[in-house]
Amino acid sequence: MQELPKNILKQYWGFTAFRGSQEPCINALLNQKDVFALMPTGGGKSLCYQIPALALEGICIVVSPLIALIQNQVDNLKSKNIKAIALTGGISFEELNNLLDNCLYGNYKFLYLSPERLQQSLVQDRIRQMNVSLLAIDEAHCISQWGNDFRPSYLECAVLREMAPKAPMIALTATATKKVQIDILENLKLRSPLIVKDSFERKNIGFQVILCEDKRYPLEKLFKKYKGCAIVYVRTRRKTFELSNHLNKLGISATFYHGGLSKEQKKDRLNVWLKDDVRAMVATNAFGMGVDKADVRMVLHYQIPDSIENYFQEAGRCGRDGKAAKAILLYKTEDIVIAEKQFIHSLPDAQYVKQVYGKLNTYFQIAYGEGSGESFDLNFNDFCGRYELNPFLAHNALRILDQHAVISLTEAFNQKSTLLFTVTKATLFDYLDANPTLAHILVTTLRTYGGLFDYETPVNLNLLSKKLNLSEQQIKKVFEKLQDDDIAICNLASTDLKVTFLVSREDDRTINPFAPKIRALNQNKLAQFDAIMAYIKNEKLCRSQFLLAYFGEKDSQKCGQCDICKSYNATKDEVENLKLKIVDILAKKSLSSRNLSNMIEEDESMVIDALRELLENETISLNQKNEYGLS
């Protein structure tokens, strides 16, 4: 006899009632019906399959895209004395065999694995022998080429249907446009599924966009204004440690996270943040998916994200406890130009993809009709330098080849070259006095990279080679000498990517079948970029309404707490009082908008709006120092 879902909820999670569409999803799965669930970040998606899996006989197979996400879920289940296994990377064949045996004979309730692991014949054979009660595909938008996190390996998830044909399947996602939803339903072959879509509205989150030419100032101000822990999203690895270092200098405890860290570093930094040993996590978009921390009070985007999908998912990581939280995006005019360069000007067309594919074959000396199954280590910067390729375009071309199963691209971040000075700056300069021939190389390295005295910093040997007009080998010898002399710790490598050719070389004939799809994907990327730009430049529509409309919710209400709503909600008296206060202050001294905001202790956006009106009425004027004063 099945145990009642509410009893399981109370026993393991301590709750007495379900939220949103959790209960209909659970009941459908218990009745052997497929489910497609669109629920917001923090909406309790995992309970939709965990509770029916505990109620049913057998084991639940969960496919998830990130190792950190898998490990987090498994650790949570184990903490509740629920038997769960994760098939992550770095385990031997013998260990894999033993873990699969445990799933068969050890009364385990959950087997978590990546889509790549699912493709192994040993894993598939063992799953066929298991008593599978339920199939769960988490982050299902990864299956769609139109999604923001498309992973080609996710297309193989449908093979689970052949291995466990009687088990119901649930697909879950927190971000999916209509086009992505259709892809998920078709690719997973869901059978007459129950489709549930909870509103993505997050009433406790106040969205805000701030235009500022010096972003570090409002960053500090926001951390002072909004207490509690925070995530700061940036776009580059270098920026993660630069900005975390800056926050630490301001007395705001911070650490950083990006895809290039080792597994141990990622785990350590996540743990210190989860335990509140540091307040801020400065990270690339490699961080956050599946991280269960409910009390994040602020998510701050320091640079422009590439899509509404990514932005909304990342912003949704604050306020999961239901308490007030802020999602703030900082940008300056120059950021728009940089974003266009990163997201639009780096979209390769089919002809460019053919060119990169041809150069890649030449680089590894692969003859026509050969290459299938061969793997190589690739120094990406050397590859781009040799053929004078734009790195942004070339990397995107390689990703397209990966997505269409021409090559398999693995980013071997553990082999990145890194450098960390273990002495003080004073000691280093004394060392240079004693070794003057090294001065030019080390000074150039210090000028190129920040954080060399604080963190193991990734260094681009190819870039330094060009700047110094020296070979990479000469630079390596200098870094190795620093390590021998106990001045630094270095980890030097000549590769940062691993490439496996999946098909034999046929040049244009290899690319032609999916060339039209490249054009369609580029158009989709352009539309996504236009949407995030429209969100940033929007000055009339409630931020929450704008975001919800993007995901198809056309009839939502104004949130009343975003920067747009607050601007409209300010009463005429409040605006007039603010303008009078500004005039009184400027009668004594000319000041910048920043200084005015500090003195008045009001949102800078409201102060700027009031200043704009006063300028239009010619009550005040702007001097050459960019200060406001009475006309």
Descriptive account of the structure:
- The protein folds into five domains: 5-197, P-loop containing nucleotide triphosphate hydrolases (Rossmann fold), CATH 3.40.50.300; 205-340, P-loop containing nucleotide triphosphate hydrolases (Rossmann fold, 3-Layer(aba) Sandwich); 344-414 and 497-526, Arc Repressor Mutant, subunit A (Orthogonal Bundle); 417-491; 570-630, Arc Repressor Mutant, subunit A, CATH 1.10.10.10.
- The strands form five sheets. The chain has a seven-stranded parallel β-sheet, sandwiched between helices. A six-stranded parallel β-sheet has the order 8-13-12-9-11-10, with helices on both faces. It has a three-stranded antiparallel β-sheet with strand order 14-19-15.
- The termini are far apart.
- The mean pLDDT is 87.
- It is of the alpha/beta class.
Rg: 27 Å
Report the CATH superfamily of the largest domain.
P-loop containing nucleotide triphosphate hydrolases
Low-pLDDT stretches are none
SS-derived structural category:
alpha/beta
Write the CATH architecture name of the largest domain.
3-Layer(aba) Sandwich
| Helix content percent band | 40-55%
What gap, in angstroms, lies between the N and C termini?
A: 82 Å
User: Overall mean pLDDT score?
Assistant: 87
Proportion in β-strands: 15-25%
List the strand order in the largest sheet. Answer: 3-4-2-5-6-1-7
Q: Please state the overall shape, judged from the principal axes of the Cα atoms.
A: globular
| Largest sheet report | 7 strands, parallel
